[in-house]
Design goal:
The protein is 31% helix and 13% strand. The chain is an alpha/beta fold. It has one domain: TIM Barrel. Strands 1, 2, 5, 6, 7, 8, 11, 14, 15 and 18 form a ten-stranded mixed β-sheet that branches. A two-stranded antiparallel ribbon has the order 3-4. The chain has a two-stranded antiparallel ribbon with strand order 9-10. Helix 5 crosses helix 6 and helix 15 packs parallel to helix 17. The longest helix is centred in the middle third of the chain and has 20 residues. The chain is globular. It holds the Pfam family Glyco_tran_WbsX. It comes from Algoriphagus formosus. InterPro entries: WbsX.
Length: 518
């Protein structure tokens, strides 16, 4: 498993990467149509009281292949480029990894991102005391829930009669092979879930009124994981005895793995009193970049609605009222950027040998994709980070505030007459991906748009952005609901972190507390 974690590094550091080009082109929508004219500075007394504040939580992981060394994926990149596995990753930076020179110099270390001493500085991610302090800070400063970025590796077979593997989740009564140490018939396991386990264990120890609510943010967007899935039963995997004859990633197994994921949520998460629920009692699941899951399901002739309907049926079978799915999505909006658009289909180059690769097809622009979400089974949408709005890129935090206004207005207006589909207004504290090499990784070894790595806010500008978000949320209360989603608690490598650090202290938590008066 140690070597597995290093292999998987490219997945999560590339998870939230996208590519955009900046050539001049005509827009397909009038830019004026996107930016609204809200009262972005309402009296403070009008802002407080009703909003539900959520924050995304990104797990870190061990990048070392040495079983005696724990090299945290966050702290290693912040402190020393030689120990940063992301910078050495040929999958995203090319054969030489990230190249530094006079034009693209190394600008670290980024020690201002070191958590405060109360969090033990560069803490161990599974430290119960740190987890307890994180939960207490969230609660004390007015955050109502965290959405944990949740990853699942579909391709991993394991053996329930073999040591530590016996503790890996497997639905009760499902088929195993007793002649092969209890080898599971349906593969797949949670990745980077150790931090969540500690957070939930500590949360359960707190008095009920001090517990944090939480939800899954399912990140099913990794191309590397998809290719690892398609390699099940391939000649190479059979040769190295990773698989047995008959194990293959066909449509039936794909659906069984999806059911396994849902059953895991039901058995281990949805039964918890601290899991986030909608007003009608349904557990809430955030779904990061649904276009990626949709395109891969299409390989099997399935729609994303087929998958969400199966999850709903399993939830109701377990006597739950259903699941409320919220899409977390963003993407390009200009015709010249369609090559980087939201795909809806993955097609293998050779259908008989899909593990050799394929391509994502039928790509849509964001404004084409979003209207389809409700028909897929989603009841709302929000975002992780918006990097642009039409022609406007984020080159500063002032730019980011402007692009967010464009999105807030466009999607609030889009759904204002639909009380059954909500737009949860998103807010980000900035963007600066230099510790991970810069925006965006290219096979040349250099970032394509390093000018985007200067989107830095202050307590004052972040607080003002929160106020604007609340004004939008309240103006469209009937359709937008009341949730404000903040990115992020701890996206240290992307420069999007409100957790207290030596650089900004409690500034961002204090801003949340001041705006929401909790």
């Amino acid at each position: 498993m140690k070597s597995l974690l290093k292999t998987l590094l490219s997945c999560s550091l590339a998870l939230f990467f996208c590519a955009c080009q900046n050539e001049k082109s005509n827009t397909i929508i009038s830019q004026k149509a996107g930016f609204g004219h809200f009262d972005f500075n309402p009296p403070q007394e009008e802002l407080a009281g009703e909003e539900l504040v959520g924050v995304y939580f990104m797990p870190s992981w061990n990048t070392s292949t040495d079983p005696n060394v724990d090299r945290d994926s966050f702290w290693s990149c912040i402190q020393d480029p030689k120990n940063c596995a992301s910078l050495q990753n040929p999958g995203i930076w090319g054969p030489k990894g990230r190249i530094y020179n006079a034009r693209y110099p190394y600008e670290g270390p980024y020690l201002d991102r070191k958590p405060i001493k109360e969090l033990k500085g560069f803490y161990k991610r599974t430290d119960p005391e740190v987890a307890r302090t994180q939960l207490q800070y969230m609660k004390e400063y007015g955050i109502d829930f965290f959405a944990y970025d949740w990853f699942f590796g579909r391709n991993y077979y394991y053996h329930l009669y073999f040591g530590p593997q016996s503790k890996i989740y497997y639905p009760e009564g499902w088929k195993i092979d007793p002649n092969r140490d209890g080898r599971v018939a349906v593969p797949g396991l949670v990745e980077w879930g150790d931090q969540l386990e500690v957070l939930l264990a500590e949360n359960a120890k707190l008095p009920k009124e001090k517990q944090m609510k939480w939800a899954v943010n399912w990140c099913d967007d990794s191309h590397e994981r998809w290719m690892a899935w398609l390699k099940i039963g391939s000649p190479d995997e059979l040769a190295r005895k990773a698989n047995y004859e008959g194990e293959k990633p066909d449509r039936e197994l794909y659906l069984q793995v999806h059911d396994k994921i849902t059953q895991l949520w039901i058995d281990q998460y949805f039964s918890r009193v601290d899991y986030l629920r909608s007003e009608d009692g349904r557990p809430v699941v955030y779904f990061y970049f649904p276009q990626d899951a949709e395109s891969r399901a299409a390989f099997y002739g399935l729609s994303l609605k087929d998958l969400l309907d199966r999850s709903q049926a399993l939830a109701k079978k377990a006597k739950l009222p259903g699941i409320k799915f919220i899409a977390v999505t963003a993407g390009p909006m200009l015709e010249r950027e369609r090559a980087y658009g939201l795909p809806t289909q993955w097609k293998a180059k050779n259908p008989n040998r899909p593990w050799e690769g394929g391509e994502y097809q039928k790509k849509m622009l964001l404004q084409e994709y979003v209207p389809r979400l409700k028909s897929m089974g989603f009841e709302g949408m929000t975002a992780y980070v918006y990097h642009n709005f039409l022609e406007k890129d984020n080159r500063s935090y002032a730019d980011m505030r402007e692009t967010y206004r464009g999105h807030w207005n466009m999607w609030s207006e889009k759904f204002k007459s639909d009380p059954n589909f909500e737009y949860q207004v998103p807010v980000a504290m900035g963007w600066d991906m230099r510790p991970a090499g810069g925006t965006w990784p290219q096979q040349t070894g250099f970032p394509s748009e390093p000018y985007k790595d200067r989107v830095h806010s202050t307590k004052s500008t972040f607080r003002d952005k929160l106020k604007e978000a609340v004004a939008v949320s309240q103006k469209y209360r009937a359709s937008n609901g009341k949730t404000i989603m903040v990115c992020c608690w701890n996206e240290y490598l992307e420069g999007n972190y409100i957790e207290p650090t030596e650089g900004h202290g409690f500034d961002y938590l204090e801003a949340i507390q001041e705006v929401f008066e909790k």
